[in-house]
């Protein structure tokens, strides 16, 4: 299996209480496996779909709708893959306190 391209993070805000990262994905690009150390909010910038690879071999696809945010608690572990078939982007807002 060919290696996937990497999603590209762009740090937009980095303050003691909040960090905002814009994530940009080419088709099929991935973040790589990671564990979230803080509660966070994701704001999709485009319509699309993300494939979430989770521990234990769980794989699911989540539809994303532009400007419809969702939140997750610290401790989430996954690899996020752009399953949209086109370039994709979202803002990740980490709540540091």
Structure description:
The chain has about 100 residues and is an all-beta fold. The chain has one domain (about 10-95): Sandwich (Jelly Rolls), CATH 2.60.120.10. It has strands at about 10-15, 20-25, 35, 40-45, 50-55, 60-65, 70, 75-80, 90-95. The strands form two sheets. It has a five-stranded antiparallel sheet with strand order 1-2-9-4-7, with no helix packed on it. The radius of gyration is 13 Å and the shape is globular. About 15% of the residues are buried. The mean pLDDT is about 95.
How would you summarize the topology of this molecule?
Elements: E1 8-14, E2 18-25, E3 34-35, E4 39-44, E5 48-54, E6 58-64, E7 70-72, E8 77-82, E9 88-95
Antiparallel strand pairs: 1-2, 2-9, 3-8, 4-7, 4-9, 5-6, 5-8
The shape is: globular
- Structure summary, number of beta strands: 9
Class computed from helices, strands and strand pairing: mainly beta
- Kindly estimate the percentage of residues that lie in beta strands according to DSSP: over 45%
């Amino acid at each position: 299996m060919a290696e996937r391209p990497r999603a590209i993070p762009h740090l937009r805000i980095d303050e003691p209480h909040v960090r905002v990262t814009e994530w940009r994905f080419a088709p099929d690009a991935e973040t790589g496996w990671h564990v979230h150390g803080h509660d966070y909010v994701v704001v999709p910038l485009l319509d699309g779909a993300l494939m979430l690879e989770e521990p234990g071999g769980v794989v699911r696809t989540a539809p994303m709708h532009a400007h419809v945010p969702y939140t997750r608690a610290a401790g989430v572990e996954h690899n996020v893959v752009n399953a949209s078939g086109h370039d994709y982007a979202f803002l990740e807002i980490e709540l540091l306190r």
